[in-house]
């Protein structure tokens, strides 16, 4: 399709709403390894359009991220550098690829874990927990369906990074060194 044959977005129209169920189905064909999280993000507005493995990896209900900005789920200290990484990676990626000049687009950041829904409207002092993840990016063109505007997305694969520590805030004691 040429841009002239596509329906343009109207002012105030959400580009994510133009995604069809057939385009979403094309994202479900990839297989995940245990513990992996796959996220499809709109190139146009940074909104999550598809997730898989979300419940297992971070504890969220199945479609809770759909329609929300990805950056909202990244640790506040990592947001600026994560956004910069994505912008730089989008400029370098080729459709269907995740490697540019022999380099993989890899980033490490923390993604917010689900806290659950509290009963009532009480405030609590519960800490927000994050899961450190290795993020890899892949640019994908969605299959054209009719005259849909929406054609491209960014596929993010997050693999949890496992720590040598067993408990939060654990201090490892080094054994006494003897010669």
Automatic annotation (TrEMBL):
The keyword Repressor does not apply. One of its GO terms (biological process) is entrainment of circadian clock by photoperiod. Residues 1-21 are annotated as: Disordered. It comes from the Eukaryota. InterPro entries: PAS (IPR000014), PAS-like_dom_sf (IPR035965), Period_circadian_regulator (IPR050760). GO terms for cellular component: cytoplasm; nucleus. GO terms for molecular function: transcription cis-regulatory region binding; transcription corepressor binding. It is found in: Nucleus. Keywords: Biological rhythms, Nucleus, Phosphoprotein, Repeat. This is Period circadian protein.
């Amino acid at each position: 399709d040429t841009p002239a044959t596509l329906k343009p977005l109207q002012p105030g129209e959400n580009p994510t709403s133009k995604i069809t169920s057939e385009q979403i189905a094309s994202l479900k064909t990839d297989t995940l390894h245990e513990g992996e999280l796959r996220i499809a993000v709109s190139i146009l507005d940074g909104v999550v359009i598809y997730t898989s493995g979300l419940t297992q990896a971070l504890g969220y209900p199945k479609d809770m991220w759909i329609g929300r900005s990805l950056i909202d789920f990244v640790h506040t200290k990592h947001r600026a550098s994560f956004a910069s990484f994505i912008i730089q990676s989008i400029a370098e990626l080729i459709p269907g690829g995740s490697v540019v000049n022999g380099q993989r687009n890899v980033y490490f950041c923390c993604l917010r874990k689900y806290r659950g829904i509290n009963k009532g409207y009480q405030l609590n002092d519960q800490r927000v927990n994050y899961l450190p993840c290795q993020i890899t990016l892949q640019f994908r063109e969605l299959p054209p369906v009719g005259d849909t505007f929406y054609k491209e997305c960014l596929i993010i694969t997050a693999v949890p990074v496992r720590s040598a520590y067993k408990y939060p805030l654990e201090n490892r004691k080094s054994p006494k060194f003897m010669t």
